[in-house]
Design brief:
alpha+beta, Phosphoribosyl-aminoimidazole Synthetase, Chain A, domain 2, 3 helices, about 25% helix
Length: about 110
């Protein structure tokens, strides 16, 4: 979905891997199976694109509701490179998160 946002708006979206709300159990299973949690189905979640200066107020409002208690900022929108989605890794690097084509295959390390 975020790839589609970036492409349609001709902006760059950069996620912060450390900020993504992935439960430890899910992270562990993904590591064991060699899957990327960004490509797993995840229903019942909301991604809101909000101006940076409005983010604190929006987060406060979302967190005030029981269903939004875990709301957080997971990234930022930039001008370039247009139409791309990238992830700042936990180690400080950056990688592209391209649109998944076909089934997700496990990494072979």
């Amino acid at each position: 979905m975020l790839n589609e946002f970036a492409q349609a708006s001709r902006c760059a979206i950069r996620l912060d891997e450390a900020a993504l709300p992935v439960r430890e159990a899910v992270r562990g299973v993904c590591e064991i199976l060699g899957l990327d949690p960004l490509y797993l189905a995840n229903e019942g979640k909301l991604v809101a694109v909000v101006a940076a200066e409005r983010a604190p107020a929006v987060l406060a409002a979302m967190r005030a509701h029981p269903d939004g208690r875990d709301a957080c900022v997971i990234g930022e929108v930039r001008a370039a490179p247009a139409g791309t989605l990238s992830v700042r890794t936990r180690l400080g690097g950056e990688r592209r998160a391209d649109m998944l084509v076909g089934d997700q295959l496990p990494r072979i390390c």
